[in-house]
Structure formats: structure tokens, C-alpha cells
Amino acid sequence: MNWTTLLCMPFLVLAGSGCLGGARAHRLADRQKRSFLPEASAAQPLAPAPRFGAATLRSLRIQPPFDARTFLIRRGQNEFAADFYNGWIAPPADLIRGQTARYLRETGLFETVFDLPGGTRAPLGLECIVNDLYLDHSGPEPAAVVAMRVLVLDERTPNGSVLFTCEKRARVPLTSSDAGTAAEALGRALTQTLEALTRTLAAAPLGGVR
After folding, report:
1. What is the pTM of this model?
2. Which of 27, 48, 89, 126 is the most exposed place for a label (fewest CB within 10 A)?
């Protein structure tokens, strides 16, 4: 073994230990990660009989950057940070789409609500846009914030003309800094947003589309 090899050995040991330490740190970080599902509460029936015909939830999209898998935290007026350790178990648009379709069916406003376009053509189409989905820590009272816009389209027309649109927003206070509490608050904010949207929708002048 020559002097060059002997001199290099300490550096190789340090480099190796650094790599191993980094791997251990990554494994520890992965174990600390938590994933959640946004759950909206069951809807209360809003009509004794369906007011409108069947509807298809054509799309539900979340505006960037709120479509991230990680929780987003608002720290200031234009400052947001991603929570590396806590987030959604799947893309939030997919999760909220399922919750929204179920909630709309439970209101009884429509004859039925199809979650995905299929062989049956419904007279109404629904498009939902989530404009806000974050944890607001920018003020003295942290809260979960959700905002959603709904468009009702007439599928009987060639271009699917817009019959009605509205946007609602909910803010639910955070009672602790625990990630599970934050996920529950986001679920309650989603519930309140859907409740406000469907109550407005119940009075919408859709012309008895069936």
C-alpha cells in the first residue's frame, strides 16, 4: 500500500459515512411522513324529490400550486411553503372529486350524479374548480381554507352552454398544530364549501332541465 492510498483512506471513510448518514436521514424522514384523505361529511338532503335531471361531473381541477400532494402553508400575503412531512395520500384533485360527487348525490338535487363520463349522456354537466386549498398561518388565528367554483352546463346544446355558476369559500379554525387536526379542518372546510354551493345551487334557475 503506497502513501497516496494511506492519505486517501480517511477521506474515503468520511465520504462513506456521510453517504450512510444521508441514507439513514432519508429513511427517518420517510418514516415521519404522514398521508391523509380529505373527508367531507355526509350531505343533508335538500329536496324531497330531485329538482334537476341527471348530471355528470365532467371535471374537477385544482388551481396550482394548491394541486400539490403536500400540505401548503400560507405564511404571509404572498408567501407559501410546502409541508414536506404531511400531505395527501393521492393527488388531491382525485380525492376531492370523489368526495364532491358523493356529496352532490346525497343532496338529492339531481336524479343522479355520474362521477365519470360514460355511455349514458346526462342532460347536465358539472365542472368544479378548487381555487384555494391551504393552511393559513399568516395571521393570529390559523385556519384551513377551501374555495371552490362550480359551473353547471347544458349538455343538450352543442357547446355545453353555462346555465349557472357560483363560488363559495370556507375557513375553519385550527385548534392545534397536529397534522391530523389540520387534515380534519380541511375536510370540514371542504364540507362547508360544498354545503354553501349546493344550497345556492338548489335555488338556481336551471329551467327544470331533465
Report:
1. 0.83
2. 48
